[in-house]
Amino acid sequence: MEHLDTKVKKELEEIFKGLKKEVTLKFFTQEFECRFCSTTHALIKEISELSDKIKLQVFEFIKDKVEADKYGVDKIPAIVVMDNKDYGIKFYGIPSGYEFSSIIEAIKLISTGESPLQAETKKFLDTLEKDIHLQVFVTPTCPYCPQAVILAHQMAYYSKKVKADMVEATEFPQLSQKYNVMGVPRTVINETEYQEGAAPESMIIQKIKSIL
């Protein structure tokens, strides 16, 4: 079963004409106890087939543990979006619904290197001495979630001190419970600080500053 219809494929082919560098999608999966692994695999395979600039690599979560550990993958399904460098940009869970735009934007970001982060944001990120981990909890039906995910990924791309994950809340209920996710998007910052909603850059930066 195809997940992308002809119209969407044509739109993506046009978008992908603007890609410059090759992008690698490292997908971590397993055949058992992973409800959305096969669907996620099928979706990103269709995406990768739309451009010769997008390479898909598939790994077994348990069998390829060394590879999973190398990229900090601790749950599945997982997608690491990178080029020849790992920027700490990950998707945990299927990037479907509104989140489909997030993975397309991640591909574009890494391939083109074009980030619209504000100058003040970049200036602050340049001064970071402490590692920052952003976990953005989302659902496919949330229209505001991609904004939060894309911003987190832009920060990770820009700064080696930042790692950013999209986490599909309904696929990882234990994590959602752990971080008290009652609504989305909810960005968890280093386990201790939280930001509700699709907040602007300045607000996320203030939250990060509060834990430094």
Describe the structure.
With 212 residues, the protein is of the alpha/beta class. It is built from eight helices and eight strands, in the order αβαβαββααβαβαββα. The chain has an eight-stranded mixed beta sheet. The radius of gyration is 16 Å and the shape is globular.
CATH-defined superfamily of the largest domain: Glutaredoxin
Order of helices and strands: HEHEHEEHHEHEHEEH
- The tally of beta strands, per DSSP, is 8
The proportion of residues forming helix, as a percent range, comes to: 25-40%
CATH topology (level 3) name of the largest domain: Glutaredoxin
Structurally, how many domains make up the residues?
Answer: 2
Mind describing the biggest β-sheet? Answer: 8 strands, mixed
The average pLDDT score comes to 97
CATH architecture tag of the largest domain: 3-Layer(aba) Sandwich
Please mark out the parts with pLDDT under 50 across 5 or more consecutive residues, or reply none. none
- What is the number of helical segments per DSSP (H or I, 4+ residues)? 8
**N- to C-terminal distance:** 48 Å
Shape: globular
- Any idea of the CATH class of the largest domain? Alpha Beta
Walk across the major sheet and give the strand order.
Answer: 2-1-3-4-6-5-7-8
Please state the CA-atom Rg, rounded to the nearest Å. 16 Å
Strand content: 15-25%
